[in-house]
């Protein structure tokens, strides 16, 4: 894990992002105190607690909407393309 100052991070932001893409974690300091951590994200976010919480909220929201709307029954070929098809 590498430490850099806010000034260094500002001046070399694209290099800092490139380092994170390579898997490196960078701690940004201000006046010698750590204030931020830039780290790579995994491609599979299912292990991320924040992502999991958002996904669970979405599923709950979608479940509450079931039954809403109008269901006409089975759709026939004529319904899809019209009687002239």
What does this 3D model show about the protein?
The chain has helices spanning 6-11, 13-21, 49-64, 77-81; strands at residues 2-5, 26-30, 33-38. The protein is α+β, with helices and mostly antiparallel strands. It has a 3-stranded mixed beta sheet. The longest helix is centred in the middle third of the chain and has 16 residues, at 49-64. It is elongated. The mean pLDDT is 85.
Give the tags.
85 residues, alpha+beta, three-stranded mixed β-sheet
Measured between the Cα atoms of the first and last residue, the distance is: 65 Å
Strand content: 15-25%
> What percent of residues adopt helix (DSSP H or I)?
40-55%
Report the average pLDDT across residues: 85
What structural class do you assign from the helix and strand content? alpha+beta
Low-confidence stretches: none
Q: Strand tally, please?
A: 3
Q: Indicate the overall shape.
A: elongated
Sheet of most strands: 3 strands, mixed
H-E string: EHHEEHH
Number of helices: 4
Radius of gyration: 25 Å
Strand order across the biggest sheet?
1-2-3
What is the structure about, briefly put?
By secondary structure, this protein is α+β, with helices and mostly antiparallel strands. It contains four helices and three strands.
Architecture blueprint of SSEs:
Layout: E1 2-5, H1 6-11, H2 13-21, E2 26-30, E3 33-38, H3 49-64, H4 77-81
Parallel strand pairs: 1-2
Antiparallel strand pairs: 2-3
